[in-house]
Amino acid sequence: MPEIDYDLEIKTGNCVRSLIDSRLLNSCHDVSSGGIALALAECCFPGILGASIKSLENINPRKDFYLFGETPARYIVSCSPQNREEVVKNITDAGISIGFEGSVGGNEITIEDYSSISLKNAHLNWMSGLKEFF
User: Fold this and answer.
1) Beta carbons within 10 angstroms of residue 41's beta carbon
2) Residue 59 backbone class (left: φ over 0; alpha: ψ -120 to 50; beta: rest)
3) Whole-prediction pTM value?
4) Which of 12, 30, 69, 107 matches a 20 to 30 Å C-alpha distance to 41?
């Protein structure tokens, strides 16, 4: 179970709220249950747009931990290209690291060097869950 850094939680939450209040974000989703893989997929489903991300930091070599780890105080945010510089500045000025970067669009969900799935198949599996097993 990951350790909770309450100071980081508060700092990250305050930064995200500030970005939302400033209307700099197009979307925001917490990374909690299911880790980065599930959170990224859930970000893509409402608008039926794919996404591609790559890691900017040293990653755990265990694929399951990397994709599904539930480390606290993490969010996936998207912004317009014209807001990117200001969003990055706000995040780094708050002392928060950016673990991934990427783009929105296409018909696949891709985590570079780890996994890629068509948006259609991801959504179908997400909607049906474990139905085939019961």
Assistant:
1) 20
2) beta
3) 0.85
4) 12
